[in-house]
Amino acid sequence: MAPSLGSNSRLSIFVLSLAIISGGLSGWAPPLWRSWAIATYNQILAWAGPQTPPAGLFLVAIDDASLQQGQWFEQQKNAPGWSKGLGQLPWPRASYAVLVEKLRAAGAEAIALNVLFEGPSSRSPKDDSQLAATLARHKGHVVLAAEMLEPNDSQGAGGLSLAPPLLALQKAAGGSKALGLTNMLKGEDNAVGPHPEAYISQILKPHGIGLQRSLPLALLDAGAQKSRQPDALRALRPYGPEGHLPRISAWEILDPDRWQQQPLRKKLKGALVLVGPTLDQGENGHSSAFGVLSGLELLGTASANSIDGTGLAPWPATAWPRALVASLPLLLIGLIGLQRPKLRWRLACCGLSLILLLLISTSALLRWQRALPLLAPAAALILLASGFGIDGYWREEKERRRLRRTFERYVAPSVVAEILQNREAAEGILLGRTLPVTVLFSDLKGFTALTQQLSKEGRSTDLVQQLNTYLGAMVEVITAHGGTIDKFIGDAVMAVFGSPRSRGVAIEAVQAVRCALAMGERLEQLNQQWQIDNIAPLASGIGIASGDAVVGQIGSPQRLDFTVIGDTVNLASRLESLTRVLDAPVLINQRTAELMQPQMGAQNLGKHSIKGMGDVAVFKPN
Predict the structure, then answer these.
(1) Confidence band (pLDDT; 50, 70, 90) for 155?
(2) What angle do CA 608, 613, 618 make, to 5 degrees?
């Protein structure tokens, strides 16, 4: 059944509303929705699993193992010189000088020290001079970390102050060209945020603050490499969990024996190396698709993203185009659904669109590093499918009620329930078809004269009441035998057996005859009661004919009746009239008599002339 105008109107408003909401959430997402969207992208990255980082990038971690080794050596009587002061942070600056010397000797092209050497060393001036001398020897190949300090109540760039390394170290390394900022903008819910260059682009450049290069880009510059992406516009894409980037524990480099056995030492030629702590990440770590990542791991991820161009970017980049991308496909799918009334087709369309959206978004994220609008359109598609389902259920129930009201006028409720199990079949029944049926036609004898008599006596109300009692009783008998009430014609009753559902041609014929006999018995009971009440008794004649008839809703658009037409109906009516001539309460045609056997017998009354049908064999049941 095609959806009604009201149904389509409601659905159109629903589709338009979903499209607007989807576009709004995709283009101008509130914080909570952005958090959910990031969680969705992270889940896709987690399903994809760890990725291979670009070659030639290594991390040197000042980790728990390095501190534990330093503490262990400090407890020994003859502790080696390299281990002094390594049991706790801050480490001696001379130890960083040793790290730089060994890494450069192994062939590292550039080294970034993610340690803030602010102010003189707490140990001695010699500690600073050793590191400065090393930085001078490797000038242009070592970059130092700087940090912008942000007051807790700061808004924008107001109140920012630079915390650079000690001036002597800065000069030894090559001045401001050897510095890189470690500040990063955090994502929603402390998750992985954009590339460190975004901090410079969004916070520092608009206010003309001098140092405008992040530590990862400073490392790439020192290694004579260029970024393959617009870093300020990219979010970080982690390659895996903490420690997934190639990593060496710092103590393994400082310990000469361990360093000679370190398998990664031979892979450092021409490499970029980030050195820094990875401790206490419970509060300072960043959530990612692969768990909490340390600051060093994130800086390494930023460097790797710049090297291979795998940083993530929203697509489209601006709000209005992003909103259109999220809403237009939904409008198209909704429009297609409105033109296709079948619920299965609508749900299939929404399901396929959702699968296609997931495939495209996943491919774009993993292969092209583009974050398409996903969460809002996916949620809108699910809601659209739910809306189609609710609308389909509502229309189905409305149609079932219509069909139930139509059929309950004619057949028993149990038959109606069976018919409505298949709504399409029910519609076919109403449209019309030829069926083998048995038609029962019952009429009262002498009722016209009785009507005239009671009308003259002013007892029309009594007549109507008696007729209604009779008809009500006959309907009960017919329904009990599985017949369908076709129509009432004054005092006449027409019933059909085998329509709209058939229990078998022979069964229907037998039930029709049994129904006729039961109707006679029920009328006799009524007459006994009427005699007691001093009411004139009634007599009936019943004609039954079996054969093919056209069954369906027939009439005008203003009035339709579910009925049967054809010669079988006419024959049943003629047989009913013949009961007065042959003085038999029930007459049946030859086909009915044949179908009754062997369950019931019939007496052949010979052939009789039937108007419009010639001579017809007539029988009466025994």
Answers:
(1) very low
(2) 35
**Cα separation of 399 and 394, whole Å?**
9
**pLDDT of residue 2 exceeding 50:** no
pLDDT in tens, 273-316: 999 999 754 456 788 889 999 999 999 999 999 999 999 999 99
Q: Is residue 426 part of a domain?
A: no
Number of domains in the chain: 3
Question: Is position 523 within any domain?
Answer: yes
Nearest-5° angle of CA 369, CA 371, CA 375? 150
Q: What share of the chain is helix, strand, coil (3-state, %, to 5)?
A: 55, 20, 30
CB proximity list for 418: less than 8 A, separation 6 or greater: 501
446 with 578, same domain?
A: yes
For the chain, percent of residues with pLDDT exceeding 90: 62
- What's the whole-model pTM score? 0.65
Helix (H) or strand (E) holding 192: none
- Tens-digit pLDDT profile for residues 377-407: 999 999 998 888 888 777 777 766 776 666 6
- Do residues 56 and 111 lie in contact, with contact meaning Cβ atoms separated by under 8 Å? no
Same domain for 571 and 615, yes or no, is: yes
**Residues linked to residue 614 through DSSP beta bridges, in sequence order:** 610
**Would residue 82 count as lying in a domain?**
yes
CATH of the domain at 484: 3.30.70.1230
E strands within 56-136?
A: 57-62, 110-113
* Residue 349 resides in a domain: yes
CA atoms of 230 and 65, how far apart (whole Å)? 37
Chain segment 221-258, per-residue pLDDT in tens: 999 999 999 999 999 999 999 999 999 999 999 999 99
Same domain, 85 and 210: yes
Domain span holding position 507: 431-621
State whether 329 and 217 are in the same domain: no
Query: Looking at the structure, do residues 9 and 77 belong to the same domain, yes or no?
Result: no
